[in-house]
Design brief:
Structural class: mainly alpha
Number of strands: 0
Largest sheet: none
Radius of gyration: 21 Å
Order of helices and strands: HHHHHHHHHHHHHHHHH
Strand content: under 5%
Number of helices: 17
Distance between the termini: 37 Å
Number of domains: 1
């Protein structure tokens, strides 16, 4: 156990350091000579030797998944005393990755700039675009600044405190916004254990490399939407009027984070066993995930939608959902590699992203199909 935990922490440290090679060329985080020299060396690797950078990133992601599966299996044999160490592992890895640079996405900068537009410039983000504030220095390293607010009022309200804590410093703001989503990650881990009463389900979600990447490295807000929607669903199923009211309000708040959770409305009318309702929610959100390319792109962080449902289903009730979720997580994280190589989203990128996502899933389904046939023959 100590070896696996050490390796997990070590690879997290490697990611945290390596991530600063992905810093936007227009962004200055620190001017300290030592930091600048390390950053320039990593920057040269990532931007000038893109193939090597992609190879390193791919190796790191594969190592993460190998360690993740190892820890997941190890948890089943852990003693009661050893299980307490998992909480320390979650905290240590979370803190390390909180300090990393958002290497796979620019969304956290959109969050920061939208919050600044709302709370500093006192403008309506649904009427005024960030790019209209022409003298804001954040525009140099923020993407999608030429769009109105992409997220609902629930999210913008939640960003009030981190927008103040950042004190106008970009690095502090990045960490503050990641602490916000990290806090909801912690709340969801509590929800998982409270609902399932098993550490396996907690570890399944907590150490999934895609979750670690999209919560602690990239700082995406999908975890907030899913905690509110699932919390609302669980409270609604309680059947007591006061809990149902809270559940309804929580679910409505989730819709005003991103809107994707609106497809879960049918679940509130089902009278199935809870594991069946959660399985239905998993497939509903998976259906939305499959449809996202119609709008723009199947981004890896959308998998948070399905992984949250999978984490609440008891292990013996949905083995396929759990194993499928792990393979899907791997395939979606691999989608980052084509951009690291080419530094562009077009060209052959879409084809490579499709292959890197689909091949692991298809291979998994094929071998599972062969396994099911062999069982029938027996």
């Amino acid at each position: 156990m100590k070896t696996l935990f050490f390796l997990f922490i070590f690879i997290s440290l490697v990611v945290a350091v390596f991530s600063y090679g992905f810093t936007d060329p227009n962004l200055v985080l620190l001017k300290h000579p030592f930091f600048v020299s390390i950053q320039e060396m990593l920057h040269q690797l990532v931007y000038a030797h893109t193939g090597t950078a992609a190879l390193i990133t791919g190796s790191i992601l594969i190592t993460f998944f190998v360690l993740y599966i190892g820890v997941l299996r190890l948890q089943e044999k852990a003693t009661k005393e050893e299980r307490k160490k998992f909480i320390k592992l979650f905290i240590i890895i979370g803190i390390i990755l909180l300090l990393s640079y958002p290497m796979f996405s620019y969304d956290v900068f959109n969050y920061i700039l939208t919050a600044k537009l709302t709370y500093f410039w006192k403008e309506n983000p649904y009427v005024v675009m960030p790019i209209e504030i022409s003298n804001d220095p954040n525009l140099m390293f923020t993407r999608a600044a030429n769009k109105l607010a992409l997220y609902g009022p629930t999210w913008i309200s939640a960003t009030f405190l981190p927008s103040l804590v950042g004190f106008g410093n970009v690095w502090l703001s990045i960490i503050a916004f990641k602490v916000l989503v990290g806090a909801w990650y912690g709340i969801f881990l509590w929800m998982i254990y409270r609902f399932t009463k098993t550490l396996w389900n907690v570890v399944f979600f907590a150490l999934n490399p895609l979750i670690l990447s999209e919560v602690f490295i990239n700082g995406h807000n999908d975890i907030l939407m899913m905690v509110l929607s699932l919390g609302g669903l669980l409270l609604w199923q309680n059947m007591q009027p006061k809990y149902r009211y809270l559940g309804f309000m929580s679910f409505v708040a989730s819709i005003f984070v991103k809107g994707a959770s609106i497809v879960l409305i049918p679940l509130f009318f089902l009278r199935w066993p809870m594991d069946k309702i959660l399985s239905a929610g998993f497939w509903l959100m998976f259906g939305v995930l499959l449809l996202t390319p119609i709008r723009e792109e199947m981004y890896p962080w959308y998998a948070v939608w399905v992984l949250t449902f999978a984490a609440l289903i008891p292990k013996n009730k949905a083995k396929f959902i759990h194993s499928f979720s792990i393979v899907l997580s791997f395939g979606l994280l691999m989608r980052h590699l084509p951009y690291i190589v080419t530094r562009e989203y077009g060209g052959v990128g879409p084809l490579w992203r499709l292959l890197l996502t689909a091949v692991p899933v298809v291979v998994y389904l094929f071998f599972r199909f062969l396994k099911s046939i062999s069982r029938k023959d027996m």
